[in-house]
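Hi U.,

Before I forget, here's the chain from the pilot set. I'm dumping it here mostly so it's searchable later in email.
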Amino acid sequence: MLPRFARFVAVDWSGARGARHRGIAVAVAEAGNGPPRLVPPPHRSGWARAEVADWLLGLPGPALAGFDFSFAPPFLDRGAYLSGLATPDTAPGFWAFVERHCEGDPDLGAHGFMEGVARPHFWMGAADGEKRAFLRWRRCEAAFNAGGGGKAATVFDCVGAAQVARASFAGMRLLHRLRGPYAVWPFDPPGPRTVVEIYTRAMLRHAGGRGLKLRDAPALAAALAAFGSEVPEGSFSDHETDALVAAAALRHLAGEARWWSPPGLAPDIAATEGWTFGVS
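Structure:
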């Protein structure tokens, strides 16, 4: 039986340098059909990543939280996360490995890991050679691409506005902190307090659109209506609309068993690479 959650949290995440991040948005939808709401950051300069962790750890009752970063690098394509570098062979072990190599990085940053022991595995520009040599994808990303979702980014490409590398490895430090108080699916079975990986573009596609950013109030209202959700008042940035819609989508999808057991989620994938919730 699936757990019943009292609230559904979606976080538009950031791996940027610094102590506070205007690019982080946190939204919560309570059980029912009320409008999702933004959680204001504790400081006017934005959220710190560690503050998001602390807020989640202090959240009472059953909760499902989604983060839009990759929970692990590809593993099955080469039988290793980082070829030539001795690393654990499960995702939770790999998060601990990242944590050990991030000394001195403030606020759960992962620049020390990416620019240190793991540097040869990341494409940071033309000086590293041909980009295609660095491109690897997980099985869930291949499934998303094959289903017409578009071209998912790889965690080893660090260049451009669409890159997810810095956010993902910073996020792995967050998962290392949250695991225990929260189950981290699919590496753990879902429990009363569970964290899942989300892709906001996939959530927007569940609303019946093409997965494009929502730029105006009517588009936000239409996406939320597709999930049976009331609409919050106010105007929002695209980071905020991503979080609002994803919170409503989690509430809508969480009670359907098929999203917890997608066809491609074999045991070896569940132990190493994980899966994006809502991708079949």
